[in-house]
Specification:
single chain; 219 residues
């Protein structure tokens, strides 16, 4: 009987310690969940705050790439192209940079080439379209387009994209040192917005981490 009590006296404290560790882990997970939820709500609000900031004429318009559907721009990309084309026709800029690399190895055209083809079919002279064929992210879209601007001594740019993508695009442009860039956004009628805005929350979160690394000189 004493032997069994001795064992009970050992087991009981161990059980309490395990229970305490489990509670602490659960509390920790709950706190992380709540912080993640608060961050997601904050980013969602920031995404929906983007507004066009056209400030007169610029040297160049930059249309940010999106997915190709085979040889043709996707419906979402066509919306960006139509918006950028409208601004070009209204005289906001005399030349366009279309930016985006190859979506898939088997595709015939990069995003930029597909965008160029679309704009040419709408009557834009090919000499008014500059291709940026390498970018695989929004950061690269704006970084490589900035290099083209410097090569041509262009100072002012209008960044053309969708509304949900505008906040991150402008933050990236600011980090890269664009000279008073303007933003012109279009609202989609073809994209599932909840899906794309949810993905943008993740993309904005990654950009926030990347921006910290850039500030620290680690990227």
């Amino acid at each position: 009987m004493m032997h069994r009590n001795h064992r009970a006296g050992v087991i009981q404290p161990i059980s309490r310690k395990r229970s305490s560790r489990t509670r602490k882990c659960l509390y920790g997970l709950l706190i992380l969940f709540l912080l993640g939820l608060l961050w997601s709500v904050y980013v969602w609000v920031q995404i929906n705050k983007a507004e066009s900031t056209l400030q007169g004429k610029a040297d160049v318009g930059i249309i940010l790439g999106a997915s190709m559907w085979g040889d043709q721009p996707s419906p979402g990309l066509k919306e960006r192209l139509e918006h950028g084309l409208k601004l070009y026709q209204e005289g906001y800029y005399p030349v366009l940079i279309v930016s985006g690399g190859l979506d898939k190895p088997g595709y015939k055209y990069t995003e930029a080439e597909g965008m160029r083809n679309y704009l040419v079919s709408k009557g834009v002279p090919e000499e008014d379209i500059i291709l940026e064929n390498e970018a695989t992210s929004t950061y690269e879209n704006l970084l490589y387009s900035q290099r083209i601007m410097k090569e041509n001594d262009w100072k002012r740019a209008v960044i053309v994209t969708h509304d949900y993508h505008g906040t991150r695009s402008m933050e990236i442009a600011g980090t890269l040192g664009y000279d008073q860039p303007s933003l012109s956004i279009t609202t989609s009628t073809v994209l599932p917005m909840f899906k794309h805005k949810s993905r943008e929350v993740l993309a904005y979160t990654k950009w926030t981490a990347d921006r910290l690394l850039i500030a620290l000189g680690w990227k």
